[in-house]
Every structure is written in structure tokens, then in C-alpha cells.
Amino acid sequence: MKFYFPDSQDLVSPTYDFQHDEYSPLRVRQRDDLYAHEILDTPPYSGILVSKSIVDGAMKGAGKYTSAQRARLYRLGVERFFRLPKGVESLGDNGAFNYVDELVPPVTVEETLDFYIGCGFDAGVSVDHIIFGYDPLASLDDVDPAWAERRRITLRLAEEFITQVSEQNLNLQPVGAAQGWSPTSFADSVEQLQKMGYQRIALGGMVPLKTKDILDCLQEIDKVRLPTTELHLLGVTRVESMDLFSDFGVTSFDSTSAFRQAFMDDRNNFHTENDAFIALRVPQVDGNPALKRAILAGRVSQKDAIAQERVCLRVLREFDGSAGAIERAIAELDAYETICQVNRSHQAEYERTLTAAPWNECECSLCKTLGIEIAIFRGTERNKRRGFHNMSVLANKMKKLKSNVLTSTTRSNHG
Amino acid sequence: MADRYEMRLPAIRLQQGAQHIYCFGVDGKRIHDFATVSRVHRDDDQLQGYQRPEVLSHIRAIRRYLESDSPLLPNAIVLAFDERVKFEPSAPVGDLSYSVVGELIIPVDEALPDDEKPAWLVDGQQRSAAIRDADLAQFPVAAVGFIAHGEAEQRSQFILVNNTKPLPKGLIHELLPDTTGHLPVAYARKQLPALIMTRLNASAKEIGTPFGGRISTPTTPDGYIKDNSILKMIENSLYEGALYQYRDPSDGSADVQQIELHLNYFWTVVQAAFPEAWNLPPLKSRLTHGAGIQSLGYVMDSLTEGVPAAELPGLDLEKAISKLKPIVAWTSGTWDFGPDNVRRWNGLQNTPSDVSLLTNHLLRALR
Predict the structure, then answer these.
(1) Backbone angles phi, psi at A91, to 5 degrees
(2) Closest Cα partner for A273 from A344, A362, A163, A193?
(3) pLDDT tens digits along B9-40
(4) Do the chains contact at A15 and B249, CB–CB below 8 Å?
(5) Which of A32, A227, A312, B287 has its CA 20 to 30 A from that of B264?
(6) Structure confidence at residue B237 as a pLDDT band (50, 70, 90)
(7) Which residue of chain A comes nearest to B185, CA vs CA?
(8) What is the Rg, in whole angstroms, of the alpha carbon atoms belonging to chain B?
(9) Strands B334-336 and B342-344
(10) For residue range A321-368, what is the model confidence (pLDDT) as tens digits?
(11) Using CA atoms, how far apart are residues A150 and A249, in angstroms rounded to an integer?
(12) Where does residue B64 rank: exposed (0-12), middle (13-18), buried (19+ CB within 10 A)?
């Protein structure tokens, strides 16, 4: 089972000064910075997924790349730009989520292939159009016409895509995109894609689906799936169900969830193999927009906030795991929350985090060098490192999957 | 420390017209005991105070400087006192009638709320906050104070004091290469590009030094290529292009000699391919114009990325650059950017979109 990490220009700066919370004035973004596969001892993923809309921009504003970075990506190719080690693959897609509101995809098969070939991807997903809705009872004909149209578009573009790949003899593994709203419609899409010649198929629009619904679809697909057809789940992480998925031909998936939970989740910020903990919130007085506004409005005293922010950091850095230290840390974090006028207290959750001190047991290179800093919810450098840590935990969980032991021996050849 | 006491500071009183100002030294750590920064807030709809919130990144930069080896903060902070502050002359008035030595007496009551403190900081808010935050036992600073009559006077002083002009950019770029020690972030980033530019410009106009004496700076007024065009080209390449290879990401240092070699090699080829356009000022030639310099910088990145300077001769850059000859219009004619986009030779501006238009035009011809 392979895990792909979707690229969103998530890097960390190795010269960041945690003591003073400062970047080196000479830092060059992206080039001096490190990806998760560079800063961790072993890459936490078997591949990266790069969306055209992130690189080239799409309907929702510009991409995440500066024009100079974009030019360099095309110039160097994906492998050199991302400094991918041997064995880490690259998969391209369009980032259909970015144009979900459009009637038809605003991108042509030709442009998409230019992107895949121009950047030198190992594999690329055909142009698709997301169906936002699930209705297992709707038949192929009696369904919201907009949904049916989106499936038709996706299939038509997939046909055009694979035709161009084979006619131009392009060095790219074509991955057919399958959209649907029910087990039957997904199965039908897969069947058609197989007929076009696809040996690898990506299932889209499954992010909001319950695990049971995904399984229903996979079961139905399995009735038509050729034994050689491999499935990819776009945007889905359900590690606990991966062994089940794998029984139905799923060989890869991608997701940002483990990474993003480090700083987007209310409580599950720091993952361990069997658990998750809240990170210790010490917002930067000058970096946190809500706090900044409150200071400007005169509701929060900047002086008091700065003083308490410092006390919190000092107490956490001196943290030794003793009962007294836990109590002190909670008291100071609580005092900071009061100054910042945070509505909900996190006391009980902080106690759980501090008592377990899970970073002490973690073997990942980030926890070993950073210690408690990685558990502090504060600024992008700490938060992203915690995200990288979470991915290393995910990688360890994946290693223990039954299906992973299998695929490592019967791994198929791509390219 | 008692929380109510008098602070007596040796001071010089100067007569300025009808007013007095007081020059004195004070431990920066104690300024906040008697001075407030009076942030803007509204009190019953009435605007009170006049100052912006602290800019923490700025404070941090000063603070880091203060914690470095032998910091120096020579410019004085400016304080507006209210009438509770007194001056006692300690010596008879000497020959200089405008200058009197004595003691400034500031009543300190640490329990007073901020807005009732006897002094307001007019200038030096960030500096005094940096001193307050720095890991130093004490840091005496020069201060200038005046006794203001009312808030309007204090406010007008604030505007006047903060109205000083920063140094001109060109001068700063020229000074940077020979500057040592701690620099503000924005200047630290510019230091290496400025150093490279100075070296490119240093030698007289001879073969193999395409930029020698041609870059216009305050001390090279005869140069005709804008320093900013060259700086941008160097910076782009240093961060995103071919010159990155000479940089050490762990400390931002670079092999300046190799960079110089690399640039000189490439631009000599350009100079040789377009000798006339290279000798004309930007008004008469788009090659020496910001658009030309930057676009060809990208061409350099594209042709030489990852190739060390010593191996450049093996690339046959002459052949590549000569491919551009049929499609350029540096000094006359038109640029043909596509069916609906034909421009006169001087219809190109130094804007990001025109630079990228020209860059793509050139890169297409090289493929």
C-alpha cells in the first residue's frame, strides 16, 4: 500500500531559530528549506502528489508557486525540484477541487499533459470533474443530470487523455479518473476506463464518504475489476481500514489529514501509534491575527500578553515531567489563555499531553532534536514539523499493515 | 526598590528659542517605570494618545542587535514630560548662555497606571521596548526631553520626529558591501547581491568584464545600466536560478569569485552577440533596460543551471544566444510576441508582466 503526500509547498526551514522565533535573514524559500522526505530519517511517504492548480493557479486565485518557482519546476523537473530520493514517486493531477464550481473543467487534456510531461511525472491522473454527492439508490439514468454530466465529462476526457498518451508515446503512466455517486456508477466508470486501456484508476470524490460507503463502492467495483487493475483513493486516509480496502485492489491513496491535524484539529494534534494528543497552545503575540486585533482594539494588553507568552515558553522549555512541572505548565498556559481571552479552557487536555509527554518516546528525528518544542502549537515552523512527525507515525502504522507486507513482495512495475 | 521615589539624572539644559530641551542619559531598562507609550485608544469617542502598537518583529531585530557583541545605540530617544518633572541647575551659568548643567528630577510611582505617568515616549518606542526585552542587566541610552504643555504639543512633536526621510536606496546599496556586523533583515539579504554588483562594476571597460563601469551607482555616475536591474537579475538567479549552486544554505555565504566568473562569462557572450545594443543606454536599447537584463538573466538560469562556472565554455553558449538574433528588437523594429501582440522595439516596460512576456519569447526560441 503506497501513501502519496499532496504537495502544497509545505517545507520547514532548517536554520529557523526556535529560541528567538526568527528566520535567518538570508533564508531562501523552498531551496534552503526542507521537505518531510529530507528532514526525517526516512521519507514518510512513497510518493508525492502535485496538482496543476497549485502550481499554475486555477479558478480560485493564483497558485501557491511564485512564477520563479514555477519556472524552475518546469526547468528542473519534479524529481530535482522536490529533491526526491530514489524510490519516492511522483503523481500529477489537476486539483479538480479548485474548479469544482465550474460547469466544465477550465483545463484541457493538452494543457494537463503539458504539465505532466513538462515536469516529468512518473504518473498522471486524467482530467476529472468532481461529483459532490452520494446517493446509492440513484440509478445510472435516474439521477441529478448535473451529476451524470460530470461523470460523462470525466470519462470523455479520460478517453482523450489515454489516446494522446499512447499516440504520442509519452513516458507517463496514465491513471484514469473515476467519478460516481453510487456503487453502481463507480463500478460502471471503472469498467469503461478499463476498456479504454487504463490499468490504474483513481477514485475521486470519496473524501466525505463514510468508510462503509467506500467499502460498498469497492465491493461493487470488484465485480468488474480486472485482477491487474490497481486502484488509488484520492484524498482518503482510513489507515484502520486499509487492509480491507486492499482486498479490493486498492494499492495507493493520498491524504493531507495526518499532516494538517497537527495544526487544524481542535485536539488531535500530536499523533502516536495508538493515540493522539492536543498540542500546547502558545500563540505568538505578533503572529496571531485574532490576538493582534484584540490588542489594536485595546481589549488585550500587549505588555501583559508578551510577558505571559515568555513565561509559558520558559516553563515549557524547563519542563522535566515532574508533577510540579506539569502543574506549573498548566497554570501558566491557563493564565495566557485568560489574557488572550480564549473562551474554552484546555486544562484537562493539556494535563493528558504533559503527563504522557509522547515526544520523549518518539523515535523520529524531529522529536529527538526538538523535544517539547514540537508539541507547542505556535507558528508554522513548529506546526509543520509536528505535521511531519504525524506523517512519520502514519508511515509506521502503514508498515504494519498486512497489505503492505504483501505489496512489498508483489510490487508492480510502473512507467 | 521603593515604588515611589525621585529619579535624579545629570542633564544639560539647552535653550532653543523660547523653549528648553534636556539632554541626559538613562538606563533603558527603567524608562518604562516613568514613561508611557500611550497607544491609540478611544475614550468616550475621543481619540486619546497617538502611537501605534509595538512592531514586534522590528523590536526583535533591535533586541538581537543589542544582545550581539558591542552594540551601539547612539541616537537619542525623545520624551515629552509633563509639568511634574523639574530641572535644577547645579552650576552657575557660564560663558555659554544657552547650555546649563544640572539635574533632571523625575517623580517615579510604579503603581501609577500607564496614562498617568509623567513622561510620554515621543520617539524610540521600538528601541526602548527592545532594551526592556533584551537579556542585559542595564543599557544606558541617550535621551532628549522637553516639558510639554498639553497633549497637542506632544502630538505635533511626534509627527515631526517621525517624519525623517530614510537614506536613498542607491547609497545604501553602495555602502552595503563594505559593512560589517549586524544588519537589519532587509539589508542583510541585499548585502551579497550588492557586493557582487560592485565587483562586476569595478574593473574598467575591458574584454571579459561586460559590466565594468557600466552600472550606474552614486559613485559611478557615468554608468548607464540601472543598478536595480542588475541587483534584481543577481537576486533572482541567486535564489531561484543558476547562481544558487554557489551558495551555502546553512549560513547564506557564497563563493563570490565563482559567481563573478559565471556572470562575466555569460554576459560576455551576450555582449559579443549584441555589441551595439550593449553599448547604448536603456532609452535607446531594451537590452540594457530592466526588461532586457532581467529576461536574459532568466535565459542564463535556463541555459546554465547546475553547471559550474569552469564548465561554461563547454556549453557553446555562443550558439544558443545567436539563436536569439532573429527574434530580438533591442534597438529598432518590432517584437513579435504572437498574432495579437506585436510591439514596437521600445514598447516593452520594466514591469513583471513585460519581463515575463519577453522571457518566454526568448526561452521559446532556445527550445
Answers:
(1) -130, 130
(2) A362
(3) 999 999 988 889 999 999 999 998 999 876 55
(4) yes
(5) A32
(6) very high
(7) A25
(8) 29
(9) antiparallel
(10) 999 999 999 999 999 999 988 878 899 999 999 999 999 999 999 999
(11) 25
(12) middle
Tell me the CA end-to-end span of chain B in Å, nearest whole number. 76
Instruction: Return the closest-CA partner of residue B225 out of B283, B150, B165, B144.
Output: B283
- Is residue B228 exposed (0-12), middle (13-18) or buried (19+ Cβ within 10 Å)? middle
The amino acid at residue A165 is V
Q: Which residues contact A181 (CB under 8 A, 6 or more apart)?
A: A131, A133, A134, A135, A138, A143, A144, A147, A151
Q: Which amino acid is at A224?
A: V
pLDDT score, position A410 = 42
Round to the nearest angstrom and report the end-to-end CA distance of chain A.
18
Nearest CA to B25 among B74, B71, B81? B74
Is A93 labeled as catalytic in the residue annotation? yes
Burial of B167 (0-12, 13-18, 19+ CB in 10 A): exposed
Cβ distance B198 to B213 under 8 Å?
A: no
pLDDT category of residue A414 using cuts at 50, 70 and 90 = very low
pLDDT for the residue numbered B205: 62
B331-344 confidence digits (pLDDT tens): 999 999 988 889 99
Name every chain B residue with its beta carbon within 8 A of the beta carbon of A26.
Answer: 188-189, 192, 251-252
Strands (DSSP E) found in B137-278:
140-147, 215-216, 225-226, 247-248, 253-254
Taking only the tens place, the pLDDT of each residue in B136-181 is 899 999 999 998 877 777 667 766 766 666 677 887 888 888 877 7
Q: For residue B27, what is the DSSP state?
A: E
Q: Which residues contact B203 (CB under 8 A, 6 or more apart)?
A: B209, B212, B213
B56 vs A28, A76, A285: nearest CB: A285
**What's the distance, CA A37 to chain centroid?**
14
Residue A412 reports pLDDT greater than 60? no
Is the pLDDT at B51 greater than 60? The verdict is: no
Catalytic one of A10, A33, A93, A122: A93
DSSP B38: -
CA distances A184 to A150, A217, B108, Å, are 16, 7, 82
Q: Provide the pairing of β-strand B4-16 with B99-109.
A: antiparallel
Instruction: Read off the pTM.
Output: 0.81
Show Cβ contacts of residue B104 under 8 Å, excluding neighbours closer than 6 positions: B8, B9, B10, B11, B22, B24, B85, B86, B87, B145
> What was the ipTM of the complex prediction?
0.73
User: Could you tell me the three cell numbers for B68?
Assistant: 550581539
Catalytic, A265? Answer no
Cell numbers 554588483 label which residue?
A: B197
Chain B residues within an 8 Å CB radius of A286: 55-57
Q: B261 and B250 in contact (C-beta within 8 Å)?
A: no
> Residue B355: enclosing H or E segment and its boundaries?
helix B352-366
Per-residue cell: B361: 519569447
